[in-house]
Specification:
Elements lengths: L4 E10 L2 E10 L2 E11 L6 H4 L1 H6 L3 H32 L2 E10 L8 H5 L2 H22 L3 E6 L3 H9 L3 H15 L5 H14 L9 E2 L1
Parallel strand pairs: 1-4, 4-5, 5-6
Antiparallel strand pairs: 1-2, 2-3
Helix pairs in contact: 3-5, 6-8
Length: 210
């Protein structure tokens, strides 16, 4: 099938799940093609949604193995969800080509033993595991990724689209009226990440880290 339009997925990840929105741009304005809340663990309980918290209570070898298993599971579930969304966008004559991922503002993580010795790092690592799974699955699906720290999202959108912050938020909020619930900050921010991934600064392509 020939695709005249390209779409991007926007991700806002949480522990064990992510808000995902598929977006195309029509005459400069975002159009939502699909949205979904994707579980990134098979069993949606604290034990699995907080893998580093769980690993801290295990012997070191078991903890390392558990984290590896959860990373593998999260990547597999993310890949399945992206393929499903790819099919849904294809049915609308649009090719899924890019993704936008919201990052936390933390620094790179140290080795596992140092992570497990710090409660703050454990929290950070739990979130990073699911973001990394989304990125890995997106890469397997051939999507070019755009990464941006969440606290920089609105400023970057203002620069890219030359719109006032209030106008950007109004447009993104309006998109949810026809879609209904859920259309929370998760979906709005995921939409903005996807919109930026398709925006003017992304036309040259390639992986970009904000």
């Amino acid at each position: 099938m020939a695709h005249s339009k390209q779409a991007a997925l926007g991700f806002r990840a949480h522990s064990g799940w992510a808000a995902v929105v598929a977006v195309r741009v029509d005459e400069g304005a975002p159009v939502v093609l699909a949205r979904q809340r994707v579980h990134l663990v098979e069993t949606f309980t604290y034990e699995f949604r907080q893998p580093y918290h769980t690993a801290k209570k295990m012997p070191p070898g078991e903890g390392r193995e558990f984290i590896w298993q959860m990373r593998t599971e999260a990547t597999r579930l993310a890949y399945r969800a992206i393929r499903e969304l790819e099919s849904r966008t294809q049915e609308q004559g649009v090719k899924l080509a890019r993704c936008g991922l919201l990052l936390a503002s933390g620094r790179p993580l140290p080795a596992l033993d140092k992570i497990l010795a710090s409660h703050a790092l454990i929290h950070t690592a739990d979130g990073e595991l699911f973001r990394e799974a989304l990125l890995h699955a997106s890469g397997r699906c051939g999507l070019r990724d755009f990464r941006i720290k969440e606290r920089e999202l609105l400023d970057r959108a203002v620069q890219a689209f030359r719109l006032r912050p209030a106008e950007i938020m109004r447009r993104v909020t309006e998109l949810g009226r026809s879609l209904g619930s859920p259309w929370s900050q998760d979906e709005k921010f995921a939409t903005m990440a996807a919109w930026l991934a398709l925006g003017p600064s992304r036309k040259s392509g390639g992986k970009t880290r904000a």
